[in-house]
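Recall from the previous lesson that a structure prediction takes nothing but the amino acid sequence as input. Here we apply that procedure to RidA family protein from Nocardia colli. The sequence below is the only information supplied.
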Amino acid sequence: MRILQPPGWPRPRGYANGIAARGELVFVAGMIGWDADGVFHSDDIADQVRQTLLNIVAVLAEAGAGPAHIVRMTWYVTDVDAYVRAYREIGVAFREIIGGFGAAMTAVEVSRLVEPDAKVEIEVTAVIPDSPPPEQE
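The prediction returns the following tokens.
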């Protein structure tokens, strides 16, 4: 994976302008902040982001991938002001669960999500690198 950073551009904070990667593509559908039983434990956006990120990691694991393989994230939030107010808590959860790498990210406010209690929905694209060629003896 290679971060795309045009010369002279300021480095974005918390994401990358672009990513170049080669390997097996993994697409994670929009995940929301409920648990494996479809139960929301909080209506707080930061709490829902934390659970959403845990859900993403669980789906990635099914493909043999992990957070470091994420190249793109699209965040849909129902209240951008609440999202901005929760930056600190969201950042803590992101670093704990996903790590400190920079994926290409987009965040947009939407009027609502299909699940009425959801405050955030996140889609992910990951790339598992091609295996290196076997060493020749």
